[in-house]
Design goal:
Layout (H helix, E strand, L loop, with lengths): L20 H10 L3 E2 L6 E2 L7 H12 L2 H10 L1 H9 L3 H8 L6 H26 L10 H11 L20 H17 L1 H23 L9 H20 L5 H13 L5 E4 L2 E4 L8 H9 L4 H11 L7 H15 L4 H13 L29 H13 E3 L4 E7 L3 H11 L7 E7 L2 E11 L1 H10 L17 H15 L6 E4 L2 H11 L6 E2 L6 E4 L2 H10 L16 H7 L2 H10 L2 H8 L3 H10 L9 H10 L1
Antiparallel strand pairs: 1-2, 3-4, 5-6, 6-8, 7-8, 9-11, 10-11
Helix pairs in contact: 5-9, 6-9, 6-10, 7-9, 8-9, 10-15, 11-15, 14-15, 16-19, 19-21
């Protein structure tokens, strides 16, 4: 499994480690076999060059001794050899044990490498570190050796036994049980075995930390590394990544281990590391293309640990990872797949992440305005809503109208915990406001489709509703937002929308400007106002009022022509209107219809002078 036919004949065919000259000479003279100090595999006489070939190689090497020394110092094999030389006896004793087949021992190295590798990745996630950014010490190695100890007496999970080389899982298990029995009965053998595991741990650590993307590494390490890369994908797919916090940490550990110091993102060359680690904002640039997105998710997790990333946002992350990292990002994509598999209840749309904060929100509440309640709240929003660029929807009213905010929260299913108060400085002093806000692109889209434009109503259209009842409910909500208490009058900065109201509801009064000419007035009139009140009962209480506006026909039933002819000379028009609860215009129109002559304006002035005498 580990044999490498391309290795030089005076190097180990399993790991690529180069033999010392005196050892080679002794092998050739005595025709002995040796144990490679780097990988612990037996090297036989037939695997070594003849004396003549050996002498040629020695002559060739000594012709450029300085270059060879420099290369040897930089050799990965030499460095690992120095790291493991002190454990040579123990590993030779274990890996050259004649009680077990060679193919089993080779696969055992692979299986234990997988186990070590899995523990390393789990340890990285639990401690939020990367082995690329720390120094490996004896305490860490001992910790992982302790984690492996139970394996010495138990069966190894079948997930670690997939794709073994030239041996079935059953054959491997049979040999493993014999090995475990020997470890149990022979304490010295057990000690040597644990020592050899520490040696293997060092190799796996070096592979993960320094050699994961290296080329031209010794074949022994190459075989282990390539197996681990294949196993890596399987491990993340089989490991449950249940929480969003697990997802973020796993992505950070993976991407931190494969990216270069500088990375090109959307045409910009960006420095990735700060003090040897990958900051969250740089990671956010890689996977979200927005540096603060992950910060926001992590803040949300502190208050809501169950927060989930939506499916469409995960798809965007995958697309960004693939375009930036290419094939190197394959394992990061596997992490996202594992998260998706472990969470079958993920929101479909990232815009629906609002449900993490407002789980009862009816996101399609304004999609179809099919009842008076919806029409009323649509009118309130037309007057008071704020739509932000990032789908923010905010309703803010004076503290005295807090009940309206509470009803709105209940109507569309918002979470009242997010209601807030804030103080604002006004001309009359400090004023307290109550606000509820959330982000939902679906609600924003529905409001825009209905005609709202976030520009202080200047470009806003009245929504097209299917019945007069719905239109009146909308008008009532709009009045509760922008109407003047105790009157039937709107006072707005937009003449356009008042003209639309006048035309739609056939309001007899004109739209006229205020003193500054910056705002506009429109009086609905008592008749329309009363109809609006009767149409929907659950509006803002302080603005509910019924104006007494009897029709001309009703007034005709209350008074005759002769009575009115006498009355207009006995009382002023104002007094008669108050008595019958009518507008001046109705009384004047009736006098004109009946051709009743009214006293001139100076008449009542003279009457007041007579009374004063």
């Amino acid at each position: 499994m580990f044999e490498n036919g391309k290795s030089p004949s005076n190097c180990c065919k399993y790991c690529g480690g180069e033999f010392q000259q005196d050892i080679l000479r002794r092998i050739l003279e005595n025709k002995e076999s040796i144990i490679c100090e780097f990988c612990g595999i037996e090297i036989k006489f037939d695997d070594i060059d003849t004396q003549e070939e050996f002498n040629k190689n020695i002559h060739k090497k000594t012709s450029n001794l300085k270059d060879n020394i420099k290369k040897n110092k930089e050799s990965i094999g030499k460095r690992i050899g120095k790291l493991t030389k002190s454990r040579k006896y123990s590993r030779n004793m274990i890996w050259e044990d004649k009680d077990f087949p060679q193919i089993f021992k080779e696969n055992l190295i692979i299986v234990f490498s997988r186990l070590i590798y899995t523990f390393i990745r789990e340890w990285e996630q639990d401690n939020n570190v990367s082995v690329r950014r720390i120094s490996i010490n004896q305490s860490i190695l001992t910790y992982f050796a302790t984690k492996l100890k139970p394996i010495l007496s138990k069966r190894i999970g079948r997930s670690f036994l997939e794709n073994l080389h030239n041996i079935s899982i059953e054959e491997f298990d049979n040999s493993l049980r014999l090995l475990q029995k020997k470890i149990e009965l022979n304490q010295d053998y057990r000690t040597h075995f644990l020592t050899s595991i520490i040696w293997l741990q060092k190799i796996v650590f070096r592979l993960v930390s320094d050699m994961w993307e290296m080329k031209n590494i010794p074949y022994f390490q190459y075989v282990i590394r390539e197996d681990l890369k294949n196993f890596y994908s399987y491990w993340y797919n089989s490991k449950s990544i249940n929480t969003t916090n697990d997802l973020l940490n796993a992505l950070r550990n993976e991407i931190e281990g494969i990216i270069p110091p500088y990375l090109k993102i959307e045409g910009r060359k960006i420095k990735m590391f700060h003090n040897g680690s990958l900051p969250w904002r740089k990671l956010s640039l890689i996977i979200c293309r927005y540096s603060r997105r992950l910060d926001r998710i992590r803040r949300t997790l502190r208050s809501n640990p169950d927060f989930k990333v939506a499916l469409d946002e995960l798809q965007k992350w995958e697309k960004n990872i693939n375009s930036t990292l290419g094939i190197k990002g394959e394992n990061a994509l596997n992490i996202i797949d594992a998260y998706r598999d472990s969470n079958t209840d993920l929101p479909i749309s990232s815009e629906l992440k609002v449900l993490n904060y407002h789980p009862n929100l009816q996101v399609n509440y304004f999609e179809d305005i099919n009842n008076k309640e919806k029409a009323y709240w649509l009118g309130v929003l037309w007057a008071e809503v704020y739509l932000g660029q990032r789908s923010e929807i905010s309703l803010e009213l004076s503290k005295k109208d807090e009940i309206l905010v509470d009803r709105y929260i209940q109507a569309i299913g918002l979470n009242s915990a997010y209601k807030s108060e804030n103080n604002k400085k006004t001309k009359s002093g400090i004023k307290t406001y109550v606000r509820i806000r959330f982000k939902c692109s679906q609600v924003k889209k529905n409001l825009l489709d209905l005609g709202y434009r976030p520009a202080k109503l200047k470009n806003t259209q009245l929504p097209s509703l299917v019945s007069r009842e719905l239109a009146l409910a909308f008008l009532l909500g709009f009045f509760d937002g922008d109407g003047k208490e105790g009157t039937t009058t709107f006072h707005l900065g937009s003449k356009k929308i008042l003209d639309q109201i006048k035309e739609k509801f056939k309001v007899p009064h004109d739209v006229y400007p205020d003193k500054d000419g910056k705002s506009w007035y429109l009086s609905l009139g008592g008749k329309l106002f009363n109809e609006m009140m009767d149409n929907y009962k659950f509006s803002l209480e302080r603005k509910r009022k019924i104006f007494r506006v009897p029709l001309k026909e009703t007034l005709k039933n209350q008074i005759t022509k002769e009575e009115l002819e006498k009355l207009v000379w006995m009382k002023q028009i104002k007094e008669i209107c108050e008595k019958y609860g009518i507008y001046r215009r109705i009384l004047v129109d009736l006098c004109d219809e009946w051709e009743i002559k009214r006293p001139p304006s100076h008449y009542w002035h003279r009457q007041s002078i007579k009374k004063s005498r």
